[in-house]
Amino acid sequence: MSAPHVPKVAGIEPALPAPAHTTDPPVTAASADPSSGTCVDGPSGAADADQDDARPTAPDAAAGLSTVDRIAAVQDRLAGWISDLSTLHDLTERLARTRTLDDALRELLRAGAFLVGARRGLVVLAPQDGLGPETTVGLGLGHAEIGHIETVPRRALSYARILDGLPEPGDDVGAEARTEIAEPDIPGEKDLDPRLREVAARLGYAASYAVPLTADPVGRLGVAVWLYDEPAEPGDRRRHLVGLYRAHAAEHLARLLELHRSQQAARTLRDELLPRRLPRIPGVRLAVRHATGPRGGGDWYDALPLPDGALGLAVGSVTGSGPSAVAAMGRLRASLRAYAVMEGEDPVAVLSDLELLMRLTEPARSATALFAFTEPPPGAPGGPPVPAGIGGSAPRKMVLAGAGHCPPLVLGDLRAEFVETSLSAPLGMLACWEAPSVEIEPSPGETVLLYSDGLLHRTGEPMDRAFARLHSAAAGVPRASRHDPEAVVDHVVRVMLPQGLDDPSSEEDVVLLAAYFEE
User: Fold this and answer.
1) From 316's CA, which of 66, 293, 300, 487 has a CA 20 to 30 Å away?
2) Integer Cα distance of 435 and 426 in angstroms
3) In 55-98, which ranges are continuous DSSP H helix?
4) Element (H, E) at 136
5) Which spans in 16-175 are helix H?
């Protein structure tokens, strides 16, 4: 989908200061790369600021000119306006293509630095409503440099004065805070805080230009500050252009801020509905990796200790996305936990009861699920007797049943293979769900991997190739790491998803749960 055109950019005020483009080239996107923050006017932009302020007024410039020269001057002025409009259109389109708050802040810094003729800068996001998030993003500034700037007393920082609504030194008592603050000569201005001059000298900047970012309904979103390497100040034309740009940018940031907050709320709700920590079960070590899509999804997992040292493992997925799917996932997981405590040794009964509950209470939904019951270790109270003639740990029986879910994978020193589970429909798809259970006996030193189909879908490959890729990833775990479930899941995720779990371009949830049976 192409980026929307920005409204009203073409309706730039006719009173835009008329630049003499024969002496000062127009700001064009082709003359600089906004992604790098450099421009034709030089790193400091000082020459442009001088020329902006030194331009003659239109009557003075036209005095003594012939008719042809006057027409040429008007055409030159119109060409400059068209060039500025084209630049604004290109930069706002770049901004409109950003889909995350962090990307939009970085694009705002790059485009603004280009428009005001600066090379570096930072944007401080601090929404006025206090709901967050609060962050600082730099352009040409690392974390250490931003940390140095933050050591300056707050009242001495231009962006902090805007955030706090403080008037400028010398203003009348009760005066409102200015909408922008320019500090054109930090080394030469003796009234500035000594710590500010010291930090500016250390970081190599000599001037700054700060503007607020405001948009309804939040109000003040934050402040953008651009830094010049030499004493400089943007002229009227550059201020006008950056003012038009930041008005659109603030509205775009407000939309992304609302989206970010919604995603964070769904992610927090989902995290609260999933286990905060995995239980410690004698003879079994657990590890899990999970990630939520941008809109929040219904993939879930569980590991719950059962009576007599038994262990229940579950992985599932609810159809849909967003808060409703997350809430349905929470209800489904809570119900499965209750059924597992009462009849966990029979996974088929657990899923049958879950299917009946879904059909009665949520007939419009369907879900996949896999539940595995691991019996107590041999010789433990409630567990089977220790087989005669076996030294060390004995295999533990695992009974599992699945409802339209992906088959588990068993990984050991001598094998890496999928468990042959019976084909079954997802829960809520049939009038009466039923499927036989499967028994396996993982040997000591082996790991059972349970996962959601999102792990396969995120590869972008057909399902048969995705399964083959998962098998190859598991078989490729170094032998020295196969006895550490944390190392196993990290290796599988790294091979399956080179872009990582936190991929904003993917809508799929991912769950990978590993159970290692100790020797």
Assistant:
1) 487
2) 11
3) 58-62, 67-96
4) strand 135-139
5) 46-54, 58-62, 67-96, 101-116, 143-149, 158-164
Rounded to whole angstroms, the Cα distance separating 213 from 220 reads 6
Residue type, 230: E
Q: Measured between alpha carbons, how far is 365 from 355 in angstroms, rounded to an integer? A: 11
pLDDT tens, the chain, 519 aa long: 444 443 433 333 333 343 333 334 444 444 444 444 333 343 333 334 344 444 444 445 555 677 877 787 777 778 778 888 888 999 999 999 998 899 999 999 999 999 999 999 999 999 999 888 999 999 999 999 999 999 999 999 999 999 988 665 555 434 344 578 999 999 998 889 999 999 999 999 999 999 999 998 888 999 999 999 999 999 999 999 999 999 999 999 999 999 888 878 877 877 788 888 899 888 899 999 998 876 667 889 999 999 888 999 999 999 887 778 888 888 999 999 999 999 888 999 999 999 999 888 888 888 999 999 998 877 665 556 665 555 556 778 999 999 889 999 999 988 999 998 777 888 887 766 677 889 999 999 999 999 999 999 999 899 999 999 999 999 999 998 999 999 999 999 999 998 888 777 777 889 999 999 987
Q: Provide the pairing of β-strand 284-291 with 510-517.
A: antiparallel
CB 179 within 8 A of CB 247: no
CA distances from 314 to 234, 244, 247, 317 (A): 61, 54, 50, 10
> Mind spelling out the 3-state secondary structure of 176-217?
CCCCCEEECCCCCCCCCCHHHHHHHHHHCCCEEEEEEEEECC
Closest CA to 344 of 377, 315, 311, 376: 311
Give the whole-angstrom CA distance, residue 197 versus residue 114: 25
Question: What is this structure's pTM?
Answer: 0.65
Q: How far apart are CA 465 and CA 317, in angstroms?
A: 21
DSSP element (H, E) containing 320: strand 310-321
| Cis omega (within 30 of 0) for bond into 217 | yes
The C-alpha atoms of residue 382 and residue 450 are separated, in whole angstroms, by 26
In sequence order, what are the residues at sequence separation of 6 or more whose Cβ sits closer than 8 angstroms to the Cβ of residue 85? 9, 10, 12
Structure tokens at 413: 């020193």
Tokens of 392: 């060390």
Give the integer Cα–Cα distance in Å for 196 and 202: 10
CA atoms of 258 and 119, how far apart (whole Å): 30
Distance, CA of 108 to CA of 98 (rounded, Å): 10
Both tokens of residue 443?
């040997």
Task: Return d(Cα 227, Cα 234) in angstroms, integer.
Answer: 11
